[in-house]
Amino acid sequence: MRFAPKNGEGFYDTLKKNIDDFFKQNNIAPTGNRGLYLKTVAMLSLFFIPGFLIIFGVGAVSPYLFFGLWFLMGLGMVGIGCSVHHDSNHGSYSSNKTVNKIIGDIVNVVGGYDVTWRIQHNILHHTYTNIEGLDEDIEVGGLMRFSPHSKKHKLHRFQHIYAWFLYCLLTLQWVTYKDYRLLFIYEKRGLLKKERISLRKALIELSIYKVIYFGYVLVLPIIFSGMPWQYVVAGFLVLHFTAGLGLSLIFQLAHVLESSDFPLPSEDRKMENSWAIHQLLTTSDFSPRSHWVFWFVGGLNYQVEHHLFPHISHVHYPQIAKIVKRTAEEYGLPYKVMPTFVFAIRQHARMLKKMGTDN
User: Fold this and answer.
1) Cα 285–289–292 angle (5° rounding)?
2) Which is it for the CA torsion 130, 135, 138, 139, positive or negative?
3) Structural domain count, the chain
4) Contact between 257 and 338 (Cβ < 8 Å)
5) Is there a domain that residue 2 lies in?
6) DSSP secondary-structure letter at 151?
7) Is the pTM higher than 0.90?
């Protein structure tokens, strides 16, 4: 599948030059800064400190405190995924590749796997955004319909009601079976070669990471927390329901909206637009005025900027967003923004209902 050439419009070349000029004129690097490093400490603390308190029995003082600590771990998992590991696996956390690798591997410690994440996110989602059959972020099985090109089932009439529960299961799938399933799929499609890893080595690595993860998240709390094992399992579910819902909303609000395009290639596998214009058509920013949202979600409320420049750290998105918007307007191209987080959720809910009723 090939995107159209630039067609002489020069949008992306002009935009890249404008962005490069911004960094040169301000004498700053496009990678992370001190603020990102401090956020890394904050997000890791938000996940691991409650975990240690649970293991050492502090949470046994009260069920409310116990489950509250698991909830904080869920928020920490969202923060690590969006604000720490995300930049590093795009190579934008640091100019040092070793640092990016070390920080990126944190995802392996919190239940994920960096290999499958990079393939699904960096290669498939970022390249083929909202393209049916290629972008796995809009292919979530028969229970949900995100694209107008997906097959519609009668059950989809109610997806705007039950979707929120399914979103809660997102990370629970990842930490249990999804990484294994993806490895076999990517092996068949030849995508593991891009990561320079064999299926056998990937399976061994993944299994070791899963043993470590379940060991400190479930086994140690069951043994040492002082709470019944049923409470520990319930707390584990609180962690993942929180993380799953949070991560699902952050990513779906950028691409599954009524304003989002879902283009398809022609019969000869060619796209109508160039890659950069395709990103403008399929992606939206949300809540750009909220400093808290920006800080917590790792700048992923600036999804347009992230998709156009994934190699630039999210700490710079508010500044370059002005340049992206201005350049898009100069070329008569759309620049989609949802004004608030709540507004974007409502628009996503409307899209879910529409996909469940429209043919």
Assistant:
1) 100
2) positive
3) 1
4) yes
5) no
6) P
7) yes
